[in-house]
């Protein structure tokens, strides 16, 4: 019975993978510039967060590189963090993360990807990282809500769990359900996002929401800005501001 089940799953993935390969170069939810899965991508963003204990500023370099038939891609995040709190006022490298995504299904209007990410315990200072190695697994779904493909919905379900690291730091076990709506017009887009989180370790809900405006300089370069708010019991921050530059090549 198990062999039959696994064979069926493998066959379905092969069919889905073939579907993804056939349409990957066409317009589809996962080829949208803001969430691109198929081109080499450089994303540089700066995020400022105000918390009850001071401020944190993160400048992050993200590089995405498709591999194979472009149904797979690799992603690396290298954050530089600055803090301004009562205890710490300095800068350093945060926890570097590496992720791999696979796209088992894609059509002109729908698509989903599976992502696995490992965040290393590599921060140059304990204040700049979690002190843990963290495994994050996610399912990403994209769907055009309008026939003209101007309204896009992206949803992500993710679990973040620590599996190694400092015994003096809290275990990480967080579930995330994130929804984003983007409306495109001309060279511009506006969007809104809400991320609902449950921290099983602290029994808290560090949720967040943002609104976003973005504009393309060229078909392959763009910037965005989004102010955000944290909310919920044991929220991670009060308010924030993120600025980003995206380059596809």
TrEMBL record:
Keywords tagged on the record: Signal, Transferase
Signal peptide per UniProt: 1-20
Domain of life: Bacteria
MF terms (GO), sorted A to Z: transferase activity
Name used for this protein in its record: Lipid A phosphoethanolamine transferase
Organism, as annotated: Flavobacterium restrictum
